[in-house]
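Run: sequence + glutathione -> complex structure.
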Amino acid sequence: MGLLVNGNWQDKWYDTDKSDGKFERESAQLRNWVTADGEAGATGSKGFIAEKGRYHLYVSLACPWAHRTLIFRKLKSLEDYIDVSIVSPDMLNNGWEFDKSNHSTGDALFDVKYMHQVYTRNKSDYSGRVTVPVLWDKKTNQIVSNESSEIIRMFNNAFNHLTNNSLDLYPSELKSDIDDVNDFVYHNINNGVYKCGFATKQAAYEKEFTTLFNALDEIEDRLTTNRYLVGNTITEADWRLFTTLIRFDAVYVGHFKCNQRTIESYPHLSSYLRELYQWPGIAETVDFYHIKRHYYFSHTMINPTQVVPAGPEIDYNRPHNRHEIG
Ligand SMILES: N[C@@H](CCC(=O)N[C@@H](CS)C(=O)NCC(=O)O)C(=O)O
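>> structure
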């Protein structure tokens, strides 16, 4: 694991010394938007008009942030419009790699070995972490965005006129409710598990642990009367929570020490998770081999033996009975 400094790769773990053992996530730097007419989005430059075959998505199947983009690509019928390269699950001294002998598709565009080479193709003196997902523009040869929360918003509407898929996971009348839930879920749960797992001081870890489980309790309460996070309509907020929940019992409970309880032990969170898992097209975006292997094998300061646990055995296909709620 490392980062680029003026275009040079440096193998370096997160620096938690400056923040008393606390993990602080860097903001994504590349923030342009694909739009239906090519006009600029909320940030960045214009010129990224939605077109079939023009954009390429780089993902890890292990990564919860990249997973969101794969889910939207599926739900929004974008598979024939946006092709994908998948990195290997192991992220070691060279960061994300395209090793075809290790569960990667290879880099379909440039056939480079490392994801950091994709970042330096975009900007030869780039400085920052080399993260996935990345949305690449083949026409102008540059990165459109490396921020998953914005890539899913582009997928939600920029291509509708081409795909005729009008499913709206961020409908205008629910925007402010979705934004509120997203904010709560992001800080306390999506990023909350990382703040537990990457904490390097006991006090920092315990603080995040309490925050995380208080938040899960609050969501459990909400799901006793609401079928989904925002009332009775499935929205972006649900898919953003889903990618953390599906990794929770397999990885975060053990590897990130989020072990007050499992998602399986929450009656509503667990049945809600099963409903989302069983949603048409979703199970095929979930890859437990990549998920478990990535975390347990890559974070050697947490798991120096790199032994990957064999369990847990959970049947996400058993009935969810969520139609009784709401
Ligand atoms: N803000 C980014 C975060 C993406 C992110 O942190 N991805 C992780 C994988 S789960 C990564 O690539 N980490 C590499 C690193 O931090 O060096 C997003 O949501 O798109």
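>> summary
The two ends are 44 Å apart (CA to CA). The longest strand covers residues 55-59.
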